[in-house]
Amino acid sequence: MVKPSQRREMAQHAVASRPMSVRLACVAFSISETCYRYQGKFNDENSYIANLLIDLTEEQSDWGFGLCFSYLRNVKGHSWNHKRVYRIYCELALNLRIRPRRRLNRNIPEPLKEPTRPNQVWSIDFMHDQLVDGRKYRLFNVIDDFKREGLAMEAGFSLPSLRVIRTLEQLLEWREKPLIIRCDNGPEFISHDFVNWAKHHNIRIDYIQPGNPQQNAYIERYNRTARYGWVSKHLFETLEEVENYATKWLWFYNHERPHTGNGGKPPLIAA
């Protein structure tokens, strides 16, 4: 199926290269004379939108159209219609290629309770990766479930329960303590030190059921965002490089990266 815009271009080429009238060319290519003489009003602006989309998808290769449009609308303040931006997005063939997965029959998990205010529920979890020389390191992540705000991203070769407690203590120096901390059954989280620390601060620990990471879905989704956003995209030589990049990315995640759970706005911009 040839688009009218393409038929217009072929008609204009035929008139320019052959002794053919405009009327005959329009009949031959099944377009009206109005379509033949149409001049686009937003060609320059469309080119500007296309350049923005290309730069954005090159920098954030894991973003689809939804995040790109939310970034342009809610972070950069552009008021373009989503249909117009999506048309340009498709013409540039920037769509993410998603490989279909084989579906497994699973039991329906119990839905997570949506927090109603900040510092009601914090979720914590670990991530793993390695440096260029093969040494493995870990990332201890903490988020506030209310607006999916990233609170901490601690890097280290070893992160025992005492390091976990130290990171949480640093958070409590500038932030109100949570009512609940949700985590898995890792050895750092079931240790006596961590349990006694939570009791001392009157914080309830909600352990998920073993083998059910969907019960800690907020932090698991956050880990996936960090994994595809920067952890798997860059090679680091030292742990200091990891820490510095984690700090920069955490600021970007909270202030500029659109989040679909917040209506397409970053956690600290969402109302």
Automatic annotation (TrEMBL):
Transmembrane segments: none annotated. It comes from the Bacteria. Residues 114-271 form the Integrase catalytic domain. It holds the Pfam family rve. InterPro entries: Integrase_cat-core, RNaseH-like_sf, RNaseH_sf, Transpos_IS3. One of its GO terms (biological process) is DNA integration. GO terms for molecular function: nucleic acid binding. This is Putative transposase.
